[in-house]
Every structure is written in structure tokens, then in C-alpha cells.
Design brief:
With about 250 residues, the protein is α/β, with parallel strands linked by helices. The chain has one domain: Rossmann fold, CATH 3.40.50. The protein contains eight helices and seven strands. It has a seven-stranded parallel β-sheet with strand order 3-2-1-4-5-6-7, with helices on both faces. The radius of gyration is 17 Å and the shape is globular. The two termini are about 35 Å apart.
């Protein structure tokens, strides 16, 4: 792969596993130095090892995106190590507890929005000033197809992801002339630990989810990662404020 991001620096939250891990590797293969931020520290440091095996450079930062102090520490460590910030994939998120709207607990509601929505706002709040000073940068926020359509049984998750799309569009418009572009990806059913938790790895349930996808299969984390890298690249220089479905045609159906 061409080193289109050589001498650039990317932050990936939720970077230890799944889509975040794939995105961190994709950034590194494209030449970027990568800050892998996650609340859960992978004891095997699989993401870091994959990046180093591919000849890339990265560091891990433990970070709860719902805590402002953790976000500022993440940014400080990024600048201490690499001296700049060019890209951010604000990916960390949780699905919360499945229940109908009238049975959703306040604790579940508040925690899900704290991570999925407040976390992305906090990340952008502290990422943007540095990119604005540079006069260039790109941010991609991870929403979901559940940020574009309803999804029964996950009211807090769906509300948070719809809000991420709205927040992304607002921030993109605010910074449209600054050289900083802000977009969102909206993954469909992607083969990750989150989907395993939702399906319980039950083959019949997995098939039901696969059947929701017009292409007839789950997506792979790397397919979302490629979209993220493209949105951050100069190839997407005229794209901002967009919520890009990476969903096998789900939204079109």
C-alpha cells in the first residue's frame, strides 16, 4: 500500500479490537504513526504488535472517552510522542443493554450516551484546536446504520448514534473553511465482538442478521477501516459532513 500518510499521526479510539484495530493497522500501513486509545488494554497488545510487524510505529494509551481528563491525557501523550495530530477516528463505543424503550434503565441510557456521544464530542473538542492551528486535518466519527434508521430494542444506542451523525454534520459545517474535514462512517453488521454479544454466537441469529444485509453476509472490520482511511485521505478532499454507510446495501433496501 502506498504510504500516503507518511509523517502523519492518527488517533484511533477503541483501537484494541474490531473496527478500531483494523483502522489502526490501516493507518499504519498507509504510513501514519498511530495512537491506539482504549479503555480495555489488550494484554497481548495485538494491535500494537500487528502494526510493528507491518513496519509501523504506534503507542497504546489507556483512555475512557467519557472522561475529559483521559481525553486531555491522550492528546498530551500524542504530542509528547509525535508532536502533531493529523487524523482521528473516534470509534470507541458500546451497545448498551438490549431492552425496549420503556424498559431501558436510566443507568444504561446515561452510560451508553456518555461513551457513544459525549465521548465523541469530548474527543473532537480536544482534537480540533490542534488541527485548526495546523490548518489541516480529518476526523471520522463512528456512527452506525442505527444512526440512520431505527433499531428495536436498543433505544439508547440508536439515540446516541443518531446524535453522532448530527454532531458530525454540525462540526463539519462549523469548520468547513478551516481545512479540517469531519465525516462519519455508519457500519452495518460487521463481524466484531459487539455483534457476537448481540447474537450470542447463535448461528440462527447470525443468519438473521446476515439476511438483513442485501449482500447476504457480515461485513469485515477491514472494510470499514478502508472507508475511514479514504475519508481521511486527500482523495476525499471535497467530502465533509457526510455520514457514509458501510453496510452492504442495508440503508438502500
Amino acid at each position: 500500500m502506498e504510504k500516503i500518510f507518511e509523517n502523519k499521526v492518527a488517533i484511533v479510539t477503541g483501537g484494541s479490537f474490531g473496527i478500531g484495530q483494523a483502522a489502526a493497522l490501516a493507518f499504519a500501513v498507509s504510513g501514519a504513526k498511530v495512537v491506539i486509545a482504549d479503555l480495555v488494554e489488550d494484554k497481548e497488545q495485538a494491535t500494537l504488535k500487528q502494526i510493528e510487524a507491518a513496519g509501523g510505529e504506534a503507542l497504546f494509551v489507556k483512555c475512557d472517552v467519557s472522561a475529559a481528563g483521559d481525553i486531555t491525557a491522550m492528546i498530551d501523550k500524542t504530542f509528547s510522542a509525535y508532536g502533531r495530530l493529523d487524523f482521528a477516528f473516534n470509534n470507541a463505543g458500546i451497545e448498551g443493554v438490549s431492552a425496549p424503550t420503556h424498559e431501558c434503565t436510566q443507568d444504561n441510557w446515561e452510560r451508553t450516551l456518555a461513551v457513544n456521544l459525549t465521548g465523541i464530542w469530548l474527543c473532537m473538542k480536544h482534537e480540533l484546536p490542534h488541527m485548526l492551528r495546523q490548518g489541516k486535518g480529518a476526523i471520522v466519527n463512528c456512527a452506525s446504520v442505527a444512526g440512520l434508521i431505527g433499531f428495536p430494542g436498543l433505544p439508547a444506542y440508536v439515540a446516541s448514534k443518531h446524535a453522532v451523525v448530527g454532531l458530525t454534520r454540525t462540526a463539519a459545517l462549523e469548520n468547513a473553511k478551516s481545512g479540517v474535514r469531519i465525516n462519519a462512517v455508519c457500519p452495518g453488521v460487521i463481524r466484531t465482538a459487539m455483534i457476537d454479544r448481540i447474537t450470542g454466537k447463535d448461528k440462527a441469529v447470525e443468519q438473521q442478521f446476515a439476511n438483513m444485509e442485501p449482500v447476504g453476509r457480515f461485513g469485515e472490520p477491514g472494510e470499514v477501516a478502508e472507508a475511514v482511511v479514504w475519508l481521511c485521505s486527500d482523495a476525499a478532499s471535497f467530502v465533509t459532513g457526510h455520514a457514509l454507510p458501510v453496510d452492504g446495501g442495508w440503508i438502500a433496501s
